[in-house]
Design a protein that fits this description.
Blueprint lengths: L26 H26 L1 E6 L11 E6 L10 E5 L5 H13 L2 E5 L2 E6 L8 E6 L2
Antiparallel strand pairs: 1-6, 2-5, 3-6, 4-5
């Protein structure tokens, strides 16, 4: 029997043949089941590591596009793919209390994030942010 092949990226299988006492012993077929299980294990480990990773992106006050709402801004987000659905959170990187409040207010203006390959686009449906704000995207 050959070595099990781990896909790059590993392929997750939702349906795996169940073997029992009545199953005819077939080394090739059994090897395929073992390979599916191994790929599932590697896939799940990679997903767990990815869930812990993050990237910080900064939306600048001057970078918002649109004369009227909705306003949008796209920024680079290294490692982000179109399939990702990262969890955004505010990063308080203000220089003082007033700056932190302004940045948090700017974050509160963002109503939607859209993932792209290497970019994230934020949308503000109602109000254009007046300060820069940094957003942590977890799961990248």
């Amino acid at each position: 029997m050959a070595n099990c092949v781990i896909g790059d990226p590993p392929v997750f299988s939702e349906e795996i043949v169940k073997w029992d006492k009545q199953t005819d012993a077939d080394g090739q077929a059994m090897g395929q089941v073992i390979e599916q299980l191994l790929n599932n294990t590697v896939y799940n480990k990679q997903a767990a590591e990815r869930a812990k990773s993050y990237v910080d992106v900064t939306f600048s006050a001057a970078g918002w596009i649109g004369e009227t709402a909705p306003y949008t801004q796209s920024v680079a987000a290294e490692g982000l793919t179109e399939e990702d659905t990262p969890t955004p959170s505010f990063v308080d990187d203000g220089t003082d209390e007033d700056d932190s409040k302004d940045r948090q207010e700017a974050y509160g203006c963002i109503t939607y994030f859209d993932s792209g390959d290497g970019t994230v686009t934020a949308t503000c449906k109602y109000k254009k942010p007046e300060s820069d704000c940094t957003v942590r995207l977890k799961g990248v």
